[in-house]
Design a protein that fits this description.
Helices cover about 30% and strands about 40% of the residues. The chain is of the alpha+beta class. Strands 2-1-6-5-4-3 form a six-stranded mixed beta sheet, with helices on one face.
Amino acid sequence: MRYLAISILLLLLLVSCNPFAPELDDSSGESSSLLSDQKDPDGVFQNLKYAYTFRDTSIYGQLFDGNFTFLYPDYDQGGAEITWGRDVEMRTADGLFKTVQRLDLIWNNIVDQSINKDSTSAYISRGFNLTVTFRADDIIRVDGYASLQLIREGPDYPWMIIRWHDDSNH
């Protein structure tokens, strides 16, 4: 009988304390947040990094205005500008995010920046390094500059990317 009581007590303790399911951290410290509210342009870059790191298309999609345009020079076609809209950008990102094992995006120094006086549009050009890991033996490194045109409806609204010109080595 004594062993049965001890067994039941141990079972109750194990059920109430699962070391493989620790409690959630309910603290709301802003410094621990990985995502930005995009109230400043740097928040857009922070959220882009998050979306790439975690391959998260839901966060990625929230970065782009409905009239978004992506542009890049196709050096195989003599530098001709290739463009596409938001729908193609989302399909492209989704395919990339599902295909790779890991994406590491590093934003470098801002090369050029201007924000209009009413603070509803901005232009930021900065360097980046992107490491794309398909497999341990298949890694691509992309270096270049991203020039983003951002817009927002007013000071209390988040910045959104309306135009992205990519000038990288791939």
